[in-house]
Amino acid sequence: MRQAEKEGNIQSAGKVTAANALLGSNAGGAGTINVTGANSILEASTQIQVGLGGTGRLTISDGGNVSALLVTVGGASELSVQGVSVTGGVTLLNDSRMAVDNATVGPLAQQAGADLTFNLRGASDFDNLHVLGPASLQGDLFVTLGAGFSPQAGDSFEFLTSTVEINENFGSLNLPALSTGLEWQLDFSPQALTLTVIGSLPGDYNLDGAVDGADFLIWQRGFGSMTNLVADGNRDGAVDSLDYNIWRSNFGASANASLSTTGDAVPEPSSVAIVLLSLLGLVYAHRDQGETSELCIDSSGRIR
Prior knowledge:
By secondary structure, the chain is mainly beta. It contains four helices and 21 strands.
């Protein structure tokens, strides 16, 4: 028989201390604690358990603080950390959930079946989590969009960082739908996870659904740049000959016909050269204006 849910609030610089803090620890029980406001503290000398046995919810926001050697969140229970820090490690067990925004926690262990959730409200306004120590991510990632926000190509969201190392092995990525011609790319580094919006058709630098001469012009105008990265097809931080090769190898492809099914989407070198020669006047026009580095294009359409 399910017991009535019990809720407690620590606020107005209040402080609660215990050796162990247990929320929703009884079978069928449910407990909630909200730690909110500057200098409001929940402190456990050993551990805080949320929902081990029953269900629980621990929310820390608006300057509140939680301190324990370890916070463990059990099945069907939730930890919400909004604009504050948890002093100590966090373990998310199967079927638990953690929501964060501008949050900091100690070493993080997300087990299989546990959810990490982030909301993107704008290109520079999004949930993020900083981990003081290693982060082991074995569960599921859920990302949602704020009302009215539609990410554009090139938008990048560094949503999780670690001071030590991230071991990323998400069980599933649950990402919001994007506009036609765009897709998500999860970029991984030893200490950061970043979601980036990219074009779904390699070499389609103007995102019109086709790889053609117009994309070559965008690449040519950005050649040599490390700031205007619209034509940075391989996302190495520079527009160079490697990005030209991406355009060339996909020339003729469209969003409605993949290279693997058209059979003739990759042009012969001579056809690429024709396209390039037809645009060569524009290339030299831009050179005369001092807008690009010198380029040399041979008869096969390759850059030397």
